[in-house]
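Hi all, posting the design record for the shared folder.

TITLE: backbone redesign
STEP: 1 of 1
STRUCTURE INPUT:
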Protein backbone atom coordinates (compact mmCIF):
# COMPACT_ATOMS: atom_id res chain seq x y z
CA UNK A 1 0.00 0.00 0.00
CA UNK A 2 1.23 3.50 -0.86
CA UNK A 3 2.30 5.53 2.23
CA UNK A 4 0.54 8.64 0.91
CA UNK A 5 -2.80 6.88 1.14
CA UNK A 6 -5.04 7.45 4.12
CA UNK A 7 -5.14 4.48 6.47
CA UNK A 8 -8.47 2.72 6.53
CA UNK A 9 -10.38 3.00 9.80
CA UNK A 10 -11.01 -0.20 11.76
CA UNK A 11 -14.76 0.36 11.43
CA UNK A 12 -14.56 0.57 7.63
CA UNK A 13 -12.26 -2.47 7.49
CA UNK A 14 -14.76 -4.45 9.57
CA UNK A 15 -17.59 -3.48 7.22
CA UNK A 16 -15.50 -4.46 4.20
CA UNK A 17 -14.74 -7.85 5.81
CA UNK A 18 -18.47 -8.43 6.41
CA UNK A 19 -19.22 -7.51 2.78
CA UNK A 20 -16.52 -9.89 1.54
CA UNK A 21 -17.91 -12.70 3.75
CA UNK A 22 -21.38 -12.07 2.28
CA UNK A 23 -19.96 -12.12 -1.26
CA UNK A 24 -18.22 -15.42 -0.53
CA UNK A 25 -21.46 -16.98 0.82
CA UNK A 26 -23.33 -15.83 -2.28
CA UNK A 27 -20.63 -17.13 -4.61
CA UNK A 28 -19.62 -13.65 -5.77
CA UNK A 29 -16.11 -12.34 -6.22
CA UNK A 30 -14.99 -10.55 -3.01
CA UNK A 31 -13.39 -7.11 -3.17
CA UNK A 32 -9.61 -7.10 -3.26
CA UNK A 33 -7.57 -4.88 -0.93
CA UNK A 34 -6.91 -2.24 -3.61
CA UNK A 35 -10.60 -1.89 -4.41
CA UNK A 36 -11.49 -1.68 -0.72
CA UNK A 37 -8.84 1.01 -0.16
CA UNK A 38 -10.05 2.97 -3.20
CA UNK A 39 -13.61 2.78 -1.89
CA UNK A 40 -12.48 4.04 1.52
CA UNK A 41 -10.55 6.96 0.00
CA UNK A 42 -13.50 7.94 -2.18
CA UNK A 43 -15.78 7.85 0.87
CA UNK A 44 -13.39 10.05 2.86
CA UNK A 45 -13.05 12.58 0.02
CA UNK A 46 -16.82 12.75 -0.34
CA UNK A 47 -17.31 13.21 3.41
CA UNK A 48 -14.74 16.04 3.42
CA UNK A 49 -16.54 17.76 0.53
CA UNK A 50 -19.87 17.50 2.34
CA UNK A 51 -18.35 18.85 5.58
CA UNK A 52 -16.84 21.77 3.72
CA UNK A 53 -20.07 22.52 1.87
CA UNK A 54 -22.06 22.40 5.10
CA UNK A 55 -19.69 24.65 7.02
CA UNK A 56 -20.91 28.06 5.88
CA UNK A 57 -18.46 29.81 8.18
CA UNK A 58 -15.20 28.11 7.26
CA UNK A 59 -12.58 30.79 6.80
CA UNK A 60 -14.33 33.28 9.12
CA UNK A 61 -12.67 34.61 12.27
CA UNK A 62 -13.89 35.85 15.59
CA UNK A 63 -13.22 39.47 16.45
CA UNK A 64 -10.79 38.25 19.12
CA UNK A 65 -8.76 36.25 16.58
CA UNK A 66 -8.64 39.19 14.15
CA UNK A 67 -7.52 41.54 16.93
CA UNK A 68 -4.77 39.08 17.87
CA UNK A 69 -3.63 38.86 14.24
CA UNK A 70 -3.41 42.65 14.04
CA UNK A 71 -1.59 42.88 17.35
CA UNK A 72 -4.26 45.03 18.96
CA UNK A 73 -6.55 44.74 21.94
CA UNK A 74 -9.93 43.15 21.34
CA UNK A 75 -11.74 46.12 22.88
CA UNK A 76 -9.90 48.51 20.52
CA UNK A 77 -10.99 46.48 17.49
CA UNK A 78 -14.61 46.52 18.68
CA UNK A 79 -14.37 50.32 19.02
CA UNK A 80 -12.91 50.57 15.50
CA UNK A 81 -15.60 48.25 14.05
CA UNK A 82 -18.32 50.31 15.73
CA UNK A 83 -16.81 53.60 14.52
CA UNK A 84 -16.64 52.25 10.94
CA UNK A 85 -20.29 51.14 11.24
CA UNK A 86 -19.55 47.43 10.88
CA UNK A 87 -20.92 46.46 14.29
CA UNK A 88 -23.44 47.92 16.68
CA UNK A 89 -24.12 46.98 20.26
CA UNK A 90 -27.64 46.25 21.45
CA UNK A 91 -29.15 44.57 24.52
CA UNK A 92 -28.28 41.10 23.17
CA UNK A 93 -24.64 41.87 22.35
CA UNK A 94 -22.79 42.83 19.19
CA UNK A 95 -24.58 42.71 15.87
CA UNK A 96 -23.28 43.13 12.32
CA UNK A 97 -24.73 46.13 10.53
CA UNK A 98 -26.44 45.75 7.18
CA UNK A 99 -23.58 47.75 5.61
CA UNK A 100 -21.03 45.17 6.81
CA UNK A 101 -23.14 42.17 5.84
CA UNK A 102 -23.90 43.54 2.37
CA UNK A 103 -20.22 44.38 1.89
CA UNK A 104 -19.33 40.79 2.77
CA UNK A 105 -17.05 41.94 5.61
CA UNK A 106 -18.93 40.47 8.57
CA UNK A 107 -21.36 37.58 9.03
CA UNK A 108 -23.73 37.12 11.93
CA UNK A 109 -23.33 33.53 13.12
CA UNK A 110 -25.61 31.47 15.33
CA UNK A 111 -29.31 31.49 16.17
CA UNK A 112 -31.00 34.87 16.43
CA UNK A 113 -31.17 34.94 20.22
CA UNK A 114 -27.48 34.25 20.81
CA UNK A 115 -25.63 35.09 17.60
CA UNK A 116 -22.23 36.70 17.28
CA UNK A 117 -20.37 38.52 14.50
CA UNK A 118 -17.49 36.95 12.60
CA UNK A 119 -15.07 38.66 10.23
CA UNK A 120 -14.80 37.26 6.69
CA UNK A 121 -11.61 37.07 4.63
CA UNK A 122 -12.79 40.11 2.66
CA UNK A 123 -13.44 41.92 5.93
CA UNK A 124 -9.97 41.05 7.20
CA UNK A 125 -8.42 42.48 4.04
CA UNK A 126 -10.58 45.59 4.27
CA UNK A 127 -9.51 46.17 7.88
CA UNK A 128 -5.86 45.77 6.85
CA UNK A 129 -6.24 48.61 4.29
CA UNK A 130 -6.97 51.19 6.99
CA UNK A 131 -3.96 53.13 8.29
CA UNK A 132 -5.11 53.08 11.91
CA UNK A 133 -4.93 49.27 11.98
CA UNK A 134 -1.64 47.39 11.66
CA UNK A 135 -1.54 46.20 8.00
CA UNK A 136 1.28 43.65 8.27
CA UNK A 137 -0.87 40.86 9.75
CA UNK A 138 -1.27 37.55 7.94
CA UNK A 139 -4.78 36.95 6.54
CA UNK A 140 -4.04 33.29 5.75
CA UNK A 141 -4.11 32.19 9.38
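Okay, here is what came back for every position:
SEQUENCE:
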Amino acid sequence: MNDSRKKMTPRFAKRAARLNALCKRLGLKPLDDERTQASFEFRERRRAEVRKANDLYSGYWSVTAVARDFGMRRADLFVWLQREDWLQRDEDGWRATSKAVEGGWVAQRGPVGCSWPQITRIGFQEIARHPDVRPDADSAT
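COMMENT: The chain has six helices and five strands.
Let me know if anyone wants the other runs.
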